Prior knowledge:
The chain is of the alpha/beta class. Helix content is about 45%, strand content about 10%. The strands form 4 sheets. Strands 2-1-3-4-5 form a 5-stranded parallel β-sheet, with helices on both faces. Helix 14 (about 335-345) packs parallel to helix 16 and helix 15 packs across helix 16. The model is unreliable at about 125-130 and about 445-453 (pLDDT under 50). Keywords: ATP-binding, DNA-binding, Nucleotide-binding, Phosphoprotein, Transcription, Transcription regulation, Two-component regulatory system.
Amino acid sequence: MTNAPAILLVDDDSSLLRLLTLRLESEGYAVTSVNSGSTALKALSTEHFALVLSDLRMPGLDGLSLFDEISRRHPGMPVIIMTAHGSIPDAVAATQRGVVGFLTKPLNHDELRQALHDAISHAHVPHQGDWRQAIVSRSPAMADVLDQAYRIAQRDVSVLISGASGTGKELLADAIHRASPRADKPFIAINCGALPEHLLESELFGHSKGAFTGAVTENQGLFRAADGGTLFLDEIGDMPMPLQVKLLRALQERQVRPVGSSRSIPINVRVLSATHRDLPKAMADGSFREDLYYRLNVVNLTLPGLRERAEDIPLLARHVLQQCAARQGIEVTRFSDDAMQALLTAMWPGNVRQLVNVVEQCVALTQAPVINAALVEQALAQDQNHWPTLTEARDQVERQYLIRVLRMTEGQVTRAAELAGRNRTDFYKLLKKHDLSAASVAAPVAITHSTAN
């Protein structure tokens, strides 16, 4: 099969390698088998694989160490770990570090088939090139968005990217540009809420010399600077109404008129825009033009919040840690298990941007190669850039309380409800509200998979 998903199989047991290779090939996979972690890394450097299936206990580079190297060199590559020494501690360590699956030997054929299917289908969009190189994810929710983004990148239409602050809207816009036929032309971004109206108009459309006090030279403007490429209008919902009219005219006529000039200039620009605001509500209250909305919103992409892609938290945290450690020249290798658990259970009102900030603080402050939970909690508490609302703070305290009481009772809901002073029905409603289950809290291995089903 020329389009068969390619799997890299790693195990030091030669008989198992042969057996699994035959089994996987019969399922339609293209299998490359190697007998060590170091050989696996060499194979990954020369070939493309959809997934790595590796033994845990191997001489030299073991399964988790191999996973660490794969994550550093090939972010987003899904890895499934196999072991004959199955245990909860192994599973917790593997999944909290970002492994997508954990299977015990002897392997159950149906479980193996399902694990491979889930991991490959939830992995990043398998398109050629490095168009999404800055986006680190293995979340099904993000995979859907990225799949749509790649497809619409090929079509020269306007795209409106929606999502809460900190979800990575500019990164997605840049990825769309790099996947488009305009990739070799400029990508220029501007925050429409960061400048007063007269400066924003000049930045977008340009101005002629002497157009206003201080205009000592001509400014071509960002529309012309992005000619042939992509202009990204971030926080478009904050654009003043008079400028909305001028932007609509520029998009309709495909030409701009610099401030202070009587001459219109043709433009060839694809416009991507983004907002955290509810634009339909803004149209209803008269603060955003309906005709401009439909001009910008030919295609809409909505980025999920970090809590909606919780399986990405370990992957993102490790990726940012490695980048920060390398940039700062600090010997930091990983998060402790309880530190990763603190990251997994945080509410993240500031989304990916907040996670990056917290990890950067941890790397800067740590005095050991392993970041502990106390440092993570300190960074979360000091992160003033994403101060939660009263409701968010109350929810976060409530969530942490539920996790703690379930751990105290080892997942016994009846006992936990008694300690919380609630009946079982009310307690289950609270668990549902916070997307928790007794099993996921009592056995943290399930947490990184809770949103994948």
